[in-house]
Amino acid sequence: MTFLNHFGRYVLLLKSLWVRPEKTSIYWREIARQMVEIGVGSVGIVVIVSCFLGAVVTVQTAYQLTSPLISKSIIGSIAANSIILELAPTVTVLILAGKIGSNIASELGTMRISEQIDALEIMGVHSSAYLVLPKIVASTIMIPLLVIVSAFLSIFSGMWVGEFTGVVSKQDFMTGAIQYWIPFMANFALIKAITFGFIISSVSSYFGYYTEGGALEVGRSATRAVVVCCVLILFFDYILAQLLL
Amino acid sequence: MIEVKDLNKSFGSKQILKAISASFEEGKCNLIIGASGSGKTVLMKSIVGLIKVNSGSIIYNNDTDFLKIDDAGRKELRKQIGMLFQGSALFDSLTVEKNVIFPLNMFTNMTYKEKMNRVNECLDRVNLKEANKLFPNELSGGMKKRVGIARAIVMNPKYLFCDEPNSGLDPQTSIVIDKLIKDITDDYKITTIVNTHDMNSVMEIGDYVLFLYNGEKYWEGHRNEIMNASNHQLNDFIFAGRFFREIKEQNNKRLSDEKNN
Ligand SMILES: Nc1ncnc2c1ncn2[C@@H]1O[C@H](COP(=O)(O)OP(=O)(O)OP(=O)(O)O)[C@@H](O)[C@H]1O
Ligand SMILES: [Mg+2]
After folding, report:
1. Total number of domains constituting chain A
2. Each residue of B12-32: pLDDT tens digit?
3. Any domain includes A2
4. Sign of the CA dihedral running A222, A109, B103, B97
5. pLDDT digits (tens, 9 = 90+) for A145-181
């Protein structure tokens, strides 16, 4: 299928979500369930990734800034800015795309090939709305929250690693981070996270929902979902940077 | 009654259903039989609208053409349809009980107690007790089919569709499932359509039998007529196994003996 075919079908899938729910309470419950699955289920990996990202960016920045003329606090400023602008909202989310995207695509793909989606349709349930909408809502809410957690953790881990390794003291790191702080960066990070949360859930739902064939295709859908999500995240990362910065 | 007229369906250049017309009788067990790959599943899924046909009409209740009604009308009609899928299609993240209660949660305003009563009634109906809290992957094939049937009848449907209810089951369990479908059809006056390639089921429950061969209708009639049908493909299908061949030979022998005497 060509890109346009996929894009057209993707738009139609999104359009099909705008229906009156059969029962609102069930949709709310499903959204809550997905929020727990996507959000709470990803905390572990976010903690691990963020700690390492913060540590690495601090050590590497310090390695580049060897001149005695430059104040140590610059390390904190560069590290914090990179974390908030790129590492937390993009790199962390890329890793989440691998986890959440493959999860969504394989769940829906399995439901498709084992006729569970047909079973929903036969009951009179609007299967795309019931299955996809809660995932998109949950992911668009939870991924920004995870990004906020990730940003804080990365900055703290950067600060502590700087202190322990002796490249920059905690005080210097924080001074730098605060001195060059631009409030819009936080908004920018959130806008990115919301966009990426939507991309991950909707694109992987698309690939899962339209799986055809057998177990092999479920695997393929999951892989394709993750690859396409990653490319789109990087693409929109650039677009948003160009537009908003 | 469900009437299909001139149903055609192709996948790409391959025509799967070729001008199928049939009328499935109200309150009876209607069977669609045919070899593997003859298009039974495609026909059944077309009738319930899971597959879009290329041309033809599907008429429920003498008035609604299923292919022409809008989305809302289709949703309404579907609430009168229950379906058991070839692979059972139970929601594997939900327990047996939650699977069966699902349509009630979605479409009724019954209290939890009323819903549970209905669920247990249906599970009793299919002779499945003490499996409420099990997950689908903890069930045997036959149990899955039963849960599938329970889920299909929980909303009191007017139409019940079963795609190969006894594929993958031993002969004894198959008969139990067949009998169950037959009883449910009679008790609740449901119009039932069953896909099968099991000749035992045909002889047990086939009030009306439609024989598909390569996506074409080759024969239709009552199960009592099937043994003496003269259709060549149908005969090949029925008498592929030795058991039915021998019955037929004995039958013929008895008939000719009677004639000679
Ligand atoms: N989605 C599809 N795309 C392309 N071809 C299909 C599709 N679904 C079914 N077919 C083809 O339609 C034909 C009939 O398939 P169908 O599943 O209806 O057979 P069946 O009679 O149900 O067989 P079985 O008894 O094995 O279940 C097969 O040749 C199959 O290859
Ligand atoms: Mg089939």
Report:
1. 1
2. 899 999 999 999 999 999 999
3. no
4. negative
5. 999 999 999 999 999 999 999 989 999 999 999 988 8
Using DSSP bridges, classify how beta strands B208-213 and B216-221 pair: parallel, antiparallel or unpaired: antiparallel
Point out which residues pair with A237 in neighbouring strands.
none
Domain of residue A87, residue span:
22-244
Please determine, looking at this structure, whether the domain spanning B2-80+157-260 carries the CATH number 3.30.360.10.
no
Does residue A216 belong to any structural domain of this protein? yes
Pick among A12, A20, A106, A122 to test the B interface (most B CBs inside 10 A): A122
CA of B161 to the centre of ligand 1 (A): 17
Query: What angle, rounded to 10 degrees, do the helices at A127-165 and A43-64 form?
Result: 40
From A116, A121, A124, residue closest to B50, measured CB to CB:
A121
Arithmetic mean of pLDDT, A191-205: 97
Orientation angle between helical segments A102-113 and A215-244, nearest 10 degrees: 140
Element (H, E) at A81: helix A73-82
The first and second tokens of residue A141, run together, are: 């809410």
Residue A16 inside a domain? The answer is no
Residue nearest to atom 19 of ligand 1 (CA): B37
The ipTM assigned to this model is 0.88
pLDDT at B261 over 80: no
**Is residue A170 situated within a structural domain?**
yes
Question: A142-146, A175-179, B74-78, B131-135 — which is least confidently predicted?
Answer: B74-78
What residue ranges do the domains of chain B occupy?
2-80+157-260, 95-156
Distance of alpha carbon B59 from alpha carbon B3, whole angstroms: 5
pTM reported for the whole predicted model: 0.90
Residue B260 has pLDDT above 90, yes or no: no
Q: Chain B closest CA to A26's CA: distance in Å? A: 7
Retrieve residue B212's tokens: 């598909």
* Whether residue B37 has its Cβ less than 6 Å from ligand 1: yes
Better-scored residue on pLDDT, B242 or A82: A82
The minimum-distance atom of ligand 1 relative to the CA of B51 is: 1
